[in-house]
Amino acid sequence: MIRTNLNKYNFNDWLKMPIETEDGFEKEETNFKKYITHEDFVNQVYGDILNILKKNNYDISNKKRYKEELGYILYRLSDNSSYGTI
Question: How far apart are CA 86 and CA 78, in angstroms?
Answer without folding.
Answer: 8
